[in-house]
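Deliverable D5.2: sample structural annotation.
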Amino acid sequence: MGSVSVLLVRPVVAVVGAAGLDALWAATGLTAQLVADDDARITAAQRAAVWAEALRLTGDRLLPLRVAAAAPVGAFGLGEHVCRAAPTLGEALRQWVRYLNLLDDTVEVGLEVEEDRALLLLERESEAPAPAAHELRWAIIARYARELATAPFRPLAVELAHPAPEDAAPFQAWFEAPVAFGAEATRLVLPREALAARLPPADPAPLAILARAADELAGQTAGDRPMTQQVKRALAGALRSDDAQVESVAKQLGLAVRSLQRRLKDEGTSFQAAREEVRRVLAERYLGDGLAIPEIAFLLGFAEPGAFLRAFKRWTGASPAERRAERRAPPPA
């Protein structure tokens, strides 16, 4: 079924405003406390209910565009910051496709590059579709591309599979491009040259967090034997790219899989043990840097946050929340 981060509905709740919150909570089963929790996940059905109720309460069919315009910088967490730190629009979109799974694993979106155009397209729809969420998704990309790219940004077309509103003109004005509702697929079509547009230097904080984690890992591995050191350092980057399998690491190190496994065994360890140790060290680092639990799980290559929570308990004997509370507690007098 999958789940959705509350970061995706928080800007919608903010635009609805305090007057509509009681009705919104009643219709969705959400609470103010849940929506304020960066770690919280909701179902796709709840996300769809948020949009349906928000549209009903406001009576505003242009609500997705209003949310896109009002969303503050950083509203979408670490994934947004990593996209903003990319050197080009194309790299930012590739990071966005990768990190979307962190925010919403009920859908799949891909980036395809053709001879003269690039396509962001919905490859798998949620079991509980929220059409307005797709409008917001493309609108956010258009807004940030215009704000950040050094070259003018104008899509070739915006295609949405759901029915059209009574008046599509405001959508065409927002995107400065033809907008087709009732299309065969949900896609944002760009000129290929738009991918090369440079982005200005951005806040380096998210990249610094990842770099600090890698530095801490390097210190932890200094006492390891040579092959174990190499594997752990390779794994630190491979986990972030979701490629931390023995075949990939062996290829990166120029070894056959059996050779790598044999050399690790000679040093008294295994690939699985090295990967567990790397995950543990990075988890502690990311937790100390204040990353949300779903973000940490994603960066460590876990399929879902629950698997990370179980692994962390196995490593440390405590939950991430308990560990974070220990870090924040004042020292005894």
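Annotation notes: The first strand starts at residue 4 and ends at 5. The mean pLDDT is 88.
The annotation will be released with the project's public dataset once the embargo ends.
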